Amino acid sequence: MDLPPTPPTLTDGHVTLRAHSPDDAQGSYEATLDPDYQRWTSVPLPVSLEGARHFVGTLMPGAWADGSSWGFAVEHDGSYVGSVELRPDDREAGVAEVAFGSHPRVRGLRIEGRSVMERALRLLLTWGFDEAGVRTVMWRAHRGNWASRRLAWKVGFRVEGTVRRWTTQRGERHDAWIGTLLHDDSRQPPTTWLTAPPLQGEQVVLRPFTDADVPRIVEACDDERTRHWLGRLPEPYDEDAARDYLLHVGEQQADGRGVWWAVTDPATDELLGSMALFGVDPGREAEVGYWAHPAARGRGVTTEATGLALRFAFGMLGVQRVVAFAAVDNAASRRVLEANGLTQYATERLGARIRTGPADQACLDVLAEEWLAGQVARMRAGGPQA
């Protein structure tokens, strides 16, 4: 398909896509000064105003002219606030890769429910599919670039997986998330992005994990007892393993497959353990799982945290059944589950993997109506409810 010699002007009434101009150099330079911009993109370092002038005045117009990239400047309220591109990979097959970057002043700015960059990306994709003959758009980002992933998710990209050491940035290889959007796909989020809302108990607060939890995660998961029962933990368990765990947590939530909480002390916010609902089948069931920091054992912390998670599962997630699995000999874990109304319905021979090898596994569950009946019985007896 023949394209105009310069980018057309596109607008939704709030955001405009247009050709880059030498006047955009200052805004482009300011964007590249942002630490997040430098962290997640391949902008040459050190950044400079001269480099920005080259980008907006030579590189982007030249790429449009030779067909290597269809790039637009993003304008909002009369100012340059970023760039969006489609980079043709196979024009005959209609395959292109999307790229985008924004000025920090518009991050989080929403206009009638949509961010500036979401509006810009929607304009770009509509033009690409309708005018440029694109049929498949690829998206990729360094693993951990949550802002990019969330924006891609909002406009309908389906994350296909993680490719190890796929992207190159300043001579280093990085794991990458890869996603696709087809011309006939819905431009709506393909999954429910689950989040971990704070849950308040008497002894614990459940909240989202943060990077500050990494040292305590290492302490918990490098503990001999934890390692014995959780036989799949990496060895050695170091800070890199803990950060990978947090990435895994975020990926599961982004795909709608689970919710993970840090179990913390209400007074100090110190990490006491992990609580999770995973394998979520909306409206049907979820699995509950957990581990405790050694300093938190024997205090009823995990029992209370499990009760809070079950309330969320049956109330907010709307599942009808929660299942759990524990090695038959893991008496402490089974007590936590039984105290919250789960009962054993089967034993799976050699179904658990503990540090010393396969072990028999207890399979437990509780239905929504059973759990609710247990809560009512505890209330009438004057005992604590989850």
UniProtKB/TrEMBL annotation:
Molecular functions (GO terms)? acyltransferase activity
EC number(s) given by UniProt: 2.3.1.-
> Where would I find the N-acetyltransferase domain in this sequence?
15-184, 204-373
Going by the UniProt record, its keywords in alphabetical order are: Acyltransferase, Transferase
Q: Which residues form a coiled coil?
A: none
The UniProt entry, under PROSITE patterns, shows: GNAT (PS51186)
Pfam families for this protein:
Acetyltransf_3
Q: Which domain of life is it from?
A: Bacteria
Known InterPro entries for this protein? Acyl_CoA_acyltransferase (IPR016181), GNAT_dom (IPR000182), Ribosomal_N-acetyltransferase (IPR051908)
Q: Where is this region: Disordered?
A: 1-26
Q: What is this protein called?
A: Ribosomal N-acetyltransferase YdaF
User: What lineage, starting at the top, does this entry show?
Assistant: Bacteria, Bacillati, Actinomycetota, Actinomycetes, Propionibacteriales
This chain is encoded by the gene named ydaF_1
